[in-house]
Amino acid sequence: MSTVLSPHADRLLPADPGVRDLARRLYEAVAHAPILSPHGHVEAALLADDTPFPDPATLLITPDHYVLRLLHAVGVPLDALGRGDAPADPQDVWRAFCTNWDAFLGTPVRYWFETSLSEIFGVTEQPSAANADELYAHIDALLATPALRPRALFDRFRIETLATTDDPVADLAAHARLREDPTFRGHVLPTFRADRYMDPSTPGWVVAVEELSDVSGIDAGRYSGLLDALRRRREAFRAAGGTATDTGVLDAGSWPLGSGEAERIHAAGLRGEATAEEAIAYRHNMLYRLAEMSSEDGLVMQLHPGVIRNHHRDTLARFGPDSGHDLPDVVAFTRPLTPILNDFGTNETFRLVLFTVDETSFSREIGPLAGFYPTVYAGAPWWFLDTPDAISRYRRAVTDSAGFAKTSGFVDDTRAFCSIPARHDMSRRLDAGYLAALVAEHRLTEDQAFDLTHRLVDDIPRTTFRLPGARS
Amino acid sequence: MSTVLSPHADRLLPADPGVRDLARRLYEAVAHAPILSPHGHVEAALLADDTPFPDPATLLITPDHYVLRLLHAVGVPLDALGRGDAPADPQDVWRAFCTNWDAFLGTPVRYWFETSLSEIFGVTEQPSAANADELYAHIDALLATPALRPRALFDRFRIETLATTDDPVADLAAHARLREDPTFRGHVLPTFRADRYMDPSTPGWVVAVEELSDVSGIDAGRYSGLLDALRRRREAFRAAGGTATDTGVLDAGSWPLGSGEAERIHAAGLRGEATAEEAIAYRHNMLYRLAEMSSEDGLVMQLHPGVIRNHHRDTLARFGPDSGHDLPDVVAFTRPLTPILNDFGTNETFRLVLFTVDETSFSREIGPLAGFYPTVYAGAPWWFLDTPDAISRYRRAVTDSAGFAKTSGFVDDTRAFCSIPARHDMSRRLDAGYLAALVAEHRLTEDQAFDLTHRLVDDIPRTTFRLPGARS
Amino acid sequence: MSTVLSPHADRLLPADPGVRDLARRLYEAVAHAPILSPHGHVEAALLADDTPFPDPATLLITPDHYVLRLLHAVGVPLDALGRGDAPADPQDVWRAFCTNWDAFLGTPVRYWFETSLSEIFGVTEQPSAANADELYAHIDALLATPALRPRALFDRFRIETLATTDDPVADLAAHARLREDPTFRGHVLPTFRADRYMDPSTPGWVVAVEELSDVSGIDAGRYSGLLDALRRRREAFRAAGGTATDTGVLDAGSWPLGSGEAERIHAAGLRGEATAEEAIAYRHNMLYRLAEMSSEDGLVMQLHPGVIRNHHRDTLARFGPDSGHDLPDVVAFTRPLTPILNDFGTNETFRLVLFTVDETSFSREIGPLAGFYPTVYAGAPWWFLDTPDAISRYRRAVTDSAGFAKTSGFVDDTRAFCSIPARHDMSRRLDAGYLAALVAEHRLTEDQAFDLTHRLVDDIPRTTFRLPGARS
C-alpha cells in the first residue's frame, strides 16, 4: 500500500477527459482568487494577537468536531482526543489521529487534511501509527516559525474578508485592533449571533439577559428593553464592520407575538417559570423580531435551523457542547417563514440567507423561495452537506430553480483555521466541474462558464453578504 | 462575451462521447414525432378563434409565472412586467426581460426561450438591454404574419393532441367549434377540473355551487345534488372528447364522509359557517368522490397535491393569483390515498396519475405505489421539477421501482403556447440520454432502448391518459 | 428486436471507458469472493433437507413479492401467479411471467433474472410468450438434477455464511442438523426476530405470548416473564450460532416504560383491551428492551422501520401478507432512537444497524448517526432501494458523512434463493464503479480502492454483523 501523500492537481474534477479539460481551465481561472469567508468560527483574537499555534493536536484535532465525531465513531474515546477533564498529552492525541487515519477514507475531512498537510506543512506521507511521532515533531517545529503564525497564514491563504461569529455582548476589541492596525490589510468582520437570547426556558437565558443589560446600558429586564438592547448592539456590530447576523434555531417558526404577550413570557422566563410552549412562542417571535431589525438596519440575516444539539446526554455531561454529537433534523422553511416573508419578503433592505442540514429542502423549499423572493438567497451546503457529493447535489437541485445569482456563494463555516483554503479550494473545483458539465451538455457557453466561475467566488458572495466591495 | 444565440444540436445530451452518440440517435428517432400534450393550460379558444398573438411581451412574458418569478427574484417588480393595475407598455416589459436575461442562466426557462426564440422566431442573438427594442420589433412583426397564427403554429409544432384545463361549468364551445371544423385536424380535449367545488370555506365556493346548478340544471344546493351535477358535467366533458380530470389540492387526504355528515357541512358552507376542520373533511371526502366517479366513468384522475398557493399576501392583493409565489410543500401519497386505493385501487375502470412537487416521494411513494397498483401511474416531473436535472432524477428514482410502463409520459403543463415544442424536445433529449446511459451500463439493449424511446412519446402517454389512438 | 439473453461482462460498470477499466479490475478482484449473507429470508430447512426444488414457477415466481408486485402493477391478477386459494398450474404461472417480461424493463428484478437464468439455468433467450413452455421444460428438467439441489447451489454460489430469519419460538432444528452435518461446510445462522411480541393490539399477540411460554418454559403471561422468556430464547439463538436480531416496526420510537406501566398494558393486551395508544407505548418500550438485551448479550440489533404492511385490504384478505403491497413510509431515526442511543450508544457490547426505505434519511440521519455513535452502522440499501441507482445514491450520501468502515456491507434480504448470487454480484459491480469513480476524481488512490473492494465484501460485513471469522 502506497504511503505517499500527494494531492493530485486534478482532484475533484470530473473524470470524463473532455469535461475535465474545461473544468481544469475554469478552476485555474479562480484557483488563486482571494478568499471571501462570510461565515465562520475563527476568533478575531487569533489574528489580533498573532500568537503562534501551540501544537499539532491542539491546532488540528481537539477543537474540530468534524474530526472528533469520525474518530469517536470508530471507537476512539473523546478523552483520548483531548476533550476530557484530565488534560491529554497532545502527542498522544496526534497518535490516535494518525493511527485511525483510515477512518476518514472517503470523507471530506481526509480531503481537507491531505490538502492542508501537504500545502501548509509540506507533509509527503500519509499519516500512520508508524510515522505519527515524526509528523508531530515536523509540524510542531514548523508552528514555531514566523511563517506559520496566524497572520502570515492569513496572507498566505489570500483571505480578503473573514467573518467571525460573536455574541451581542462581545466587546469586539480584537476586531477594532485589527481595523486600526495599519500592518493588517484584511477585513475581519463580526457577525451578530443572538441565539442565547431567544429561548427563556434555557439555563443560560437569565444570565444572558443580565449581561446584555450591562453591556448595552439598556435594561433588558423587560422584553421591550431586550429588543432595544439588541438594536443598540447591532449598531455596535455595524460600526465594527459587521454586515450580517446569524441565527441557529431548532425550527424556523416565526410567528410574532403582541408586545403584551411577549412581555408576559419574558417576565415568566426571568422568574424561571416559562413553560415549554411559551418558550417556543417566544423564540418564534424573536426570530420575527430579528428579521424586523434586519429589515431596518440592513444586516443580512443568516438562518441555520434544524440542528439537534447534544444528542448524547453522557457525552454532553463529560465533554461539553461541540463535541461531535449535534445531529440534523427534518427542516422546513416555506410554512414557518410565512410571517417573516409576508412582512419583509419584498423589503429592499431585508436579506435572508437560508441554510439547511436536510437536503430535501434544496429543491422543495430553498430553491423555490429564492426563485421568487428578491430578499431570499439559497445558502451554500453547510455542515453534514459540505461534502463533494452533497455540494454537487445542491448545485443540481437549486440552480435550475433559482439561477446562479440567488445562490449565496461558498461559506466554509469552520473553526479550523488551517482548513479554510482547502475548503474554498474544494468548492472552486466542484463549481468548475459543475460549470464544465453544463457546457458539455450545451446548457451554458464557455464564455458564460468563465464569467460564472469568477462571479461565484467574487461578486455573488460579496453581494449576498454585503461584503466590502459589493456593488449593490 | 459572445452574444450569439444558437442552440446546439446536441444540447442536453450526455457529455460522454460514447453515450452521446447513441443518445443522439435515440433522440433523432423521435425528434419529429407528433406531440401528445395530455395536460396543459392553453385555452381552446386560442385555436378556435385563431386570432393573431398581440405582442411579444403579452405572448411570452406577462402570463408566464415561470418567467415572472425569476425576474421578481432578482428585483424586477411585477408591475414592470405587466401584472399591475395600470397597464404596462409591452415594449417596456420586454426590455425588462431582455435586460435581466442573465437571471435565467442555468434554468430551464432560459433553455425553453433559447429554443423558442431560435426555432419559432429566428432570433440569432442573446437578448440584452442593447438589442431589446430590435428583438421586440422583429418578433412583433412576425406575430402579424399568417405563419405565426395559433393554428399555423399548432401544425408546425406537430401537436396531435392537446388537453386543456376547464372548469365544470365551462361551455366547451371552443372545443366544439374545433371538433366540428373540418380544416382543423388536431384533438383538443377538455380536462375536468373541479377544484372550486372542493372546499366550502373558500370565498368562491358558494358562487361556484350556484353556477354549477345553473349550468348543469341540477340543484347543487344539496351535497347529493352537487355530486349529481358534477356527474352530469363529467358526461358533457366526455362527450366533448375529454378523457381525464385534474385535481389540485393541498394534501391528498381522501377519507370519505357519510352522506348525512357531508350534507350537514355542505349546508354549513352555504351559510358561510363551515369550520376549518369541516372544510378539510369535506375536501377529503370530495377527493374520494371524484375517485369514485372516475371508477364509474373512466375519466383518468390526475392528482397534483402539495402546492401552497399565493404565499405572499401583498403580491396576491396587488397582482392576483398565478403571479409566481405558489410554492411546494411536503407531499404524502401512500397514507392519505389509502381510502381511494382500498376501494378503487384494482378497479379496471379507475386510473390515477400522481404528480408531486416534492421529489422525495419519487422513490418512497410514487414509484412503489405505481409498482403495485395497476391503476396508479407515476406522473412526470411537474412544476419546480420540470428541469433537466430533476427529470433525470425522476427517471433514476422511479424506473427501477416501477418500470417504464407505469410512468405517465411527459406533460408540459404550460400556459405558454410557444414553449410546448421546446418542453417536449427537452424531455425527448433527456429520455434519450437516460436510455443511452442504461445501454452503456448494459442494463438495456440498444433494441430495447429504441423501442422505449418511441413508446415514451407515443403509446405510454396515449395509454396512461386514454388519448385518441390508445390501444387499451 | 433481438431475443438473445446474454448478460454483458461489463454490466453495471461505469460507461466512461477510463473509469470502467479500473472498475472492471476492482470488480474482478472480488467477483469470486465467498458470499457473506448476514440478512435474508431463506429457510434453513431448505438446505438441511436438500429436497429438489419443485418447478420453475414455485421456485422463481409465486413466493417472490418483488416479481408479484410488478406483474400485478401491469394487470396480472395475483391468482394467475399462484397466490389464490385455488391452486394455479405452475406452467400457467410461468407463462404469465414470460408474457409480461417487458414489465421488468429497467428494474433490478429483470437484472437478477437475466443473471440467474443465464448463469444457473443456461438460458440464452429472453423469456416471451413464444418460448415460455420451452423455457419451463428446460428449467424443470434441470431442477431434477443433482447439480440444482439446494446444497449444490449453495456451494456453487460460494456462500460462506447465510443468516436466516426466525421467530423466537423456532426450534432451530434445521440449523442444528446443518451444524452437525460434517458434509455441509457453510455457516447457516439463525436471526432472532421478535416482531410478533411487540404489539399487544395485534391479533396474533396473545397466541404468540402463549407459544413463547411453552417453548421457553417461562411464563410470559406477565411482562417480566415475557422479557425473561425472550432472553432465554436469545441464548438459544446464540447457542445455535446466531449473531444478530432483526426488528421490523412501523416507527423507531424507543421510549421505555416503567415496569408497572408495562405490566399493566401487558395484562390489558392479554384481555384484548389494550388501546391503540397503549399498544404504541408498549411497542416503543419493547424496542428499548430489545436494545437493552443486545447491550447485554451482544446480538447485533438490526432495525428496519417504516414499512406500511398490507396497504390493500382486499389483497390481504384474498392473498395474505407478503403479496406485494407493503409500502414505504416516511422514516425517522435521530429523534425516536434518542432513548436507546442515550443509554446504549457508547456501550461496547451493543451494536445497531439502521436500515431505511426512505432514502432522505441517508444523508440526514443514518450517515450522521453512524458518523458519531461507535455502536451505529449504516445499513445497506434495502427493499425498494436495493436497485442500482438507489445503491449508488446510498454510497454518495453516506460515505462522505460516515466513511466506509461504518457502512454495513451488502445484505440481499431475499427469500429467492436463486437470486442471491445475482444480488451480491450487482452490489460488487456497483461498489467497484463507485470506488473507480473516486479514484478517477483523485479522492482515493488505486491502492486504497483495491483494499476497500475487498473489505466491503469481507471484513466490513463480518465485523458489522459479528460473523464467523470477524476480527473484532
How do you describe this structure in short?
With 472 residues, the first copy, chain A, is an alpha/beta fold.
What does this structure look like?
The structure is a homotrimer of 472-residue chains. Chain A has 472 residues and is α/β, with parallel strands linked by helices. The first copy, chain A, contains 20 helices and ten strands. Chain A has helices spanning 17-30, 44-49, 56-60, 65-73, 90-99, 108-119, 132-143, 150-156, 173-180, 205-216, 223-239, 259-270, 276-297, 313-319, 338-344, 360-370, 388-402, 420-440, 446-457, 459-464; strands spanning 35-37, 159-163, 187-189, 191-193, 244-249, 300-305, 307-308, 327-328, 352-354, 376-378. In chain A, the strands form three sheets. In chain A, strands 4-5-6-9-10 form a five-stranded parallel beta sheet, covered by helices on one side. The first copy, chain A, has a three-stranded parallel beta sheet with strand order 1-2-3. In chain A, helix 16 (360-370) links the parallel strand 9 and strand 10. In chain A, helix 16 (360-370) packs parallel to helix 17 (388-402). The longest helix of chain A has 22 residues, at 276-297. The mean pLDDT of chain A is 97. Chains A and B meet through helix 15, helix 16, helix 17, helix 18 and helix 19 of A and helix 4, helix 14, strand 8 and helix 17 of B.
